[in-house]
Amino acid sequence: MLRLSTLFVRTLREDPSDAEVASHRLLVRAGYIRRSAAGVYTWLPLGLKVLRKVEQIVREEQDAIGGQEVLFSALQPREPYEATGRWEEYGPTLFRLQDRREDDYLLAPTHEEMFTLTVKDLYSSYKDLPAMLYQIQTKFRDEARPRAGLLRTREFIMKDAYSFDVDDAGLDASYEKQRLAYQRTFERLGLPTVICQADAGAMGGSRSEEFLHPTEVGEDTFVVSDGGYAANVEAVTTLPPEALDEAAIAALPAMHLEDTPGASTIAKLTDLSNEAFPGKGRVAEDGQWTRHEMLKHLVYLLTHPDGTTEPLVIALPGDREVDPKRLEAAVAPAIATAFTDEDFAAHPVLKKGFIGPEGLGLEAPSGIRYLVDPRVVPGTSWVAGAGEKDKHAYDLVYGRDFTSDGTIEAAEVRDGDPAPDGSGPLRLTRGMEMGHIFQLGRKYAEALGLKVLDENGKSVVVTMGSYGIGVTRAVAAIAELNHDEKGLVWPRQLAPADVHIVATGKDAAVFEEAERVAAELEARGLEVLYDDRPKVSPGVKFKDAELLGVPTSLVIGRGLAEGTVEVRDRASGTIREVSPAEVVGAVLAEVRGA
Amino acid sequence: MLRLSTLFVRTLREDPSDAEVASHRLLVRAGYIRRSAAGVYTWLPLGLKVLRKVEQIVREEQDAIGGQEVLFSALQPREPYEATGRWEEYGPTLFRLQDRREDDYLLAPTHEEMFTLTVKDLYSSYKDLPAMLYQIQTKFRDEARPRAGLLRTREFIMKDAYSFDVDDAGLDASYEKQRLAYQRTFERLGLPTVICQADAGAMGGSRSEEFLHPTEVGEDTFVVSDGGYAANVEAVTTLPPEALDEAAIAALPAMHLEDTPGASTIAKLTDLSNEAFPGKGRVAEDGQWTRHEMLKHLVYLLTHPDGTTEPLVIALPGDREVDPKRLEAAVAPAIATAFTDEDFAAHPVLKKGFIGPEGLGLEAPSGIRYLVDPRVVPGTSWVAGAGEKDKHAYDLVYGRDFTSDGTIEAAEVRDGDPAPDGSGPLRLTRGMEMGHIFQLGRKYAEALGLKVLDENGKSVVVTMGSYGIGVTRAVAAIAELNHDEKGLVWPRQLAPADVHIVATGKDAAVFEEAERVAAELEARGLEVLYDDRPKVSPGVKFKDAELLGVPTSLVIGRGLAEGTVEVRDRASGTIREVSPAEVVGAVLAEVRGA
């Protein structure tokens, strides 16, 4: 039994000054967690109880699909992470340290390398596979901006699972099992999630999906359509307009150069076009020039993992901005930074403000990579910089007047953009990544030499999947979803106790009855939180009960003399009176849903 | 059910080359653990099951004394550890690291500081106390010599508890509760322990006891007497001989100087004394000079925590060596290093090989600290260096001819030395530290400002205890204690499964029967490990069963056709035959001890 007179908890009436979101504010105020450093938290007794219940649900669903639990160390040597390239690639997010012999170690952000090596150590035949291994373990990531309490921390608990199969069909089956396990896990946690296509990125895997929980406090943006399409913004592909055929292109007005003094931005260029060439716009019905038909050129410096750099020009419709996250995903593992004045000085062929495509004859072949937005298809007509100051090209047709080195998905996705699968307009939604399932393929097995003998005695590289759930973050998301202005409102399966008994007043009979009921409920298998504090006012006790958020509370007080106690439902706020004789049955019925 | 056909395990017939002790050898060979770096291990599924059972016993006994479980982060900021001095004092054993802002962090070796700060955050009144908090958490220590598998690792799981009381009587009560909880814990783990007085050392606490498990592979030496005295060697106090009174001292032969050419060691001095002054020894009945009466003088350089140094002269009977661990404990927090030739050169008053006490008139008052072994009491008579080359003083009586700045417990403890409490001769024993309970007192609370208001509204510093159990090490100790030449022999309460079912041969009826029995035992609440591997020989299966060490195994094989299966007891090796109809009852009786 948890007695509030001795429980290690202190509720706060004031919000902590650094709390941005409700879950952070309330978990601290209700005494579930305390901050110990930036992005590092302590779990107090009530918080730990919720955490363990979340862990247990995650564990049971992993066990249900044949997952086998193991436990790896956080401290890992550099070498395997060096072999897969992650020692470098992880950048400043990796906590690195040295031991007393000055050997390099890291605190593992995930454990692909070590699982791979351990399977290599234990297994050698196709008969040993498939294998599904997982751990629920403490991870470390030196986040640039830890935020929002438990939503983004630098030390956190994660369930990470890894599958090992001899072939792609096996990987597909393992992946599907985890996908179903994730759906069941989040359902049991009471966390609605949308399964979004995720960008497989530099990891080189084939299939990758995120389980995003839609919430305003989420850090991720994803898109959904009414027809069922869902994707991470990084993974959204653009539905291109139809291209024109050669004959249709030939019939378009010819390209011509015009003087455009000072029109070094899309806004200025659009205004100048409307002044100088009114009614000649190609898109709007009234002939107004629109930003959409101005082809915006942006220049980045790409830094490759080996340290080499090169410029990259991206062309996109003038009414779109580049989405930094989509750009990052599109160029990974390289890193793109905006061209600086010095970069422009080093590449005089790029005339800032008047950059245009190659092949106009305006510039010599530059060797510079030039990628266009997928909306730039053959037959689309644009206004673009002519490669010299104060001059632009009009009626510049892609596929006739210029071409590119390929397309890039870097432009922002907007509400109303069409879903790539034709399932209707997209809606942008904020969400929080709760889980990620990912076909890693053979990247890690190849780097670390994990092979088994197949049925024919031939050595084959094992194919892997990785599957993560943020356990710490799940607690925050659950608190975020289940609260009101008075405090937390835990779902029954995750509450730190089944019932919160409040004894009020100074009457010894009240406390005796509360003890009796508490003991009996506990004997029936319920977890009881009992507010037995002798000199605390009923008002404070009720406020604490609301803040702590146990789903059912039982108030034993003045009414006892008249033969009634109150059963309160935290979520609905309803109160009903029952007699002391009925109370145990009534609470059991509430808790067990009878 | 754990099926060996899919369980993530691989047994090895060969010992790992780096294994020094049985627990390490067998836990690796049986597939319970794997090494991932020096002193860092991975828990495979069977190992994790044992670990969790040990944890749960530790947890239940902490809960039983009102301990409240919390969970702190491993990553901790430097500042609080700086405030208590441990950032420096911990030396190279502390894993230190920096985050991306170059702020200093550490991986906590224990959490005194953070518990103190959290109690300070939550509590403010004597009414909040006593409080007993604990966690079962991953600790990091950069051990100079990780060894013996799980016995000394650099990342390990520890239960650390801390008590908070308003006064010394409260601390005594909290300490006593933990002491009893530890006795129950180790009893449930099946680990005999001796409660040894430990040196409170630099921590400044008052009472400190270690729970040492006697074992040959232990790293600690402790002493016990038949009368019940037990202490860590660092904590043993010397039973001094009786001192003489002034009159008796005055009656002793007068001190005299003698030439002792070349007698710069105790051995040479003893030989020379026997040659030059035969029959004049004061201790042996036959008048032989003994090493015991030669007063050995050793010189050390003490380095204090603030970096200052000073020489220290220690005088002890010539038949004793200094025990480096006792010396270390005696001078802590200073560090003693043996005087080098340069040090001697810097202190010409100290004549190497002929050093004697001050106050003989042989030396001017030197200001050098001079401590004697507790056996040097008033009225004891010695031969000692006269402070000049090739000269010694004979019949040098302590309390008449020389004195000291105090005593020091630095001499080695020997088998047969008397226990300080008069409980008989001491026996030296090897042991492994399984737990440590410790009255910290007010050191941490003072350094970090943890005070509460007492009954009179006065602010008082809280007094603390700390209580640790090495959970990882307990698994190793249990394995070390419970094995034979064939493998592990788990006690029932800690075994990874209750019963190991072995199906042998190729007969489908055997496997069907094994499945049926496994399912039924599982339905009765037993944890079943089932060797369902179809093409593995009975010999290999039996060997694996012995290596894995489940206490009861059940062999279903050829005998089935004649109506018998075998119930085997791992510890005793006994085999008895039962009929398939009886088998479930028989196994239940074995497991539940009916």
3D architecture notes:
Two copies of one chain form a homodimer. With 594 residues, chain A is an alpha+beta fold. Chain A has three domains: 50-234 and 427-479, BirA Bifunctional Protein, domain 2 (2-Layer Sandwich); 246-397, YbaK protein (Alpha-Beta Complex); 497-592, Rossmann fold (3-Layer(aba) Sandwich), CATH 3.40.50. Chain A has 15 helices and 31 strands. In chain A, strands 4, 8, 9, 10, 11, 12, 13, 21 and 24 form a nine-stranded mixed β-sheet that branches. In chain A, strand 27, helix 13 (508-523) and strand 28 form a beta-alpha-beta unit. The two termini of chain A are 23 Å apart. The mean pLDDT of chain A is 91. Chains A and B meet through strand 2, strand 3, helix 2, strand 4 and strand 5 of A and strand 2, strand 3, helix 2, strand 4 and strand 5 of B. Chains A, B: Residues 34-491 form the Aminoacyl-transfer RNA synthetases class-II family profile domain. Chains A, B: Its EC number is 6.1.1.15. Chains A, B: Its main location: cytoplasm. Chains A, B: It is found in: Cytoplasm.
In short:
With 594 residues, the first copy, chain A, is an alpha+beta fold. Chain A folds into 3 domains: 50-234 and 427-479, BirA Bifunctional Protein, domain 2 (2-Layer Sandwich); 246-397, YbaK/aminoacyl-tRNA synthetase-associated domain (YbaK protein); 497-592, Anticodon-binding domain (Rossmann fold), CATH 3.40.50.800. Chains A, B: It is an enzyme of class 6 (ligase).
Shape by Cα distribution of chain A: globular
* Helix-and-strand structural type of chain A: alpha+beta
**Quaternary:** homodimer
What is the terminal-to-terminal distance of chain A? 23 Å
Which pair of chains has the greatest number of interface residues, and how are they split between the two chains?
A: A-B, 51 and 51 residues
The low-confidence runs of chain A, each spanning 5 or more residues with pLDDT under 50, are: none
CATH-defined architecture of the largest domain in chain A: 2-Layer Sandwich
Counted beta strands of chain A: 31
User: So, the CATH homologous superfamily of the largest domain in chain A?
Assistant: Bira Bifunctional Protein, Domain 2
Separate helix tally of chain A: 15
Helix residue percentage of chain A: 25-40%
Radius of gyration based on Cα positions of chain A: 30 Å
Using the coordinates shown, work out and report the CATH topology of the largest domain in chain A. Answer: BirA Bifunctional Protein, domain 2
Average pLDDT figure of chain A: 91
- Our estimate of the beta-strand percent of chain A is 25-35%
Q: What is the count of structural domains of chain A?
A: 3
Q: State the major sheet of chain A.
A: 9 strands, mixed
